[in-house]
Amino acid sequence: MAAAIELLDVSQDGGVMKSIIRAGAGRMPVLGQVAEITYTARSSSTGVFHEAARERWVCGAPGNVRGLDVAVASMRVGERASFEVRFDYAYGEAGLAGKVPARGDVAYDCELLAVADAAPATDEPLALPAEAANPSAAGAETVEVDGLPVKLDSLGPMVVNKDGTLSRITNWHEMTEPERQKTLRIIAKRNKKRLDALQAEL
């Protein structure tokens, strides 16, 4: 009898579920680093709609497909994994014309090949175009809180974990405006402290 496949909730709210196909032993990408990945994106309704043999992915960049961003940040170099990404972490309410239906979930098969500290000088695209390919990312912005930048969109701020991976606040949509402002101040300071610590380790 085959062993049950373990599903990992890497978004901590069921939005991105991960199954490791082959474990990696290298480092994990952190916010701002460039991941070299190969991946296939599949919709249950239309099948495979995007394949990348080798693509540079800037972790945490504005306009990234949110679910793939979370997925890549959870991986180690050499790792291959599959991900089930809920519609609100993929292409949102509208979907992707001709490829992903409205409120359509997306499956990714992804391998992390390498991680670099900075993007190479090139004119080639780093990821799927943000505005055309990811309507749910529209409105993403970086706001300054007490002089510190925090990336913010409809799902709330990006949180930098101690190991450099990214996560979300699961109850952001339930917070009042004063609660959100207080949370933003805390996250801005914590993100800076953790990024400084991570940079010091490089």
TrEMBL record:
| Superkingdom, taxonomy of origin | Eukaryota
Pfam families from the UniProt entry:
FKBP_C
**Which UniProt keywords are present, listed alphabetically?**
Isomerase, Rotamase
User: Can you state which reaction this protein catalyses?
Assistant: [protein]-peptidylproline (omega=180) = [protein]-peptidylproline (omega=0)
**Which region is the signal sequence?**
none
Q: Does the keyword Isomerase apply?
A: yes
Asked whether the UniProt record includes Transmembrane helix among its keywords, one would answer no
Entry EC no(s): 5.2.1.8
Q: Which residues are in the PPIase FKBP-type domain?
A: 32-116
InterPro entries of this UniProt entry?
PPIase_dom_sf (IPR046357), PPIase_FKBP_dom (IPR001179)
Gene3D superfamilies assigned to the protein according to its UniProt record, in alphabetical order: 3.10.50.40
Question: What is the protein name given in its UniProt record?
Answer: peptidylprolyl isomerase
Organism the protein comes from: Aureococcus anophagefferens (Harmful bloom alga)
What phylogenetic lineage does the species belong to? Eukaryota, Sar, Stramenopiles, Ochrophyta, Pelagophyceae
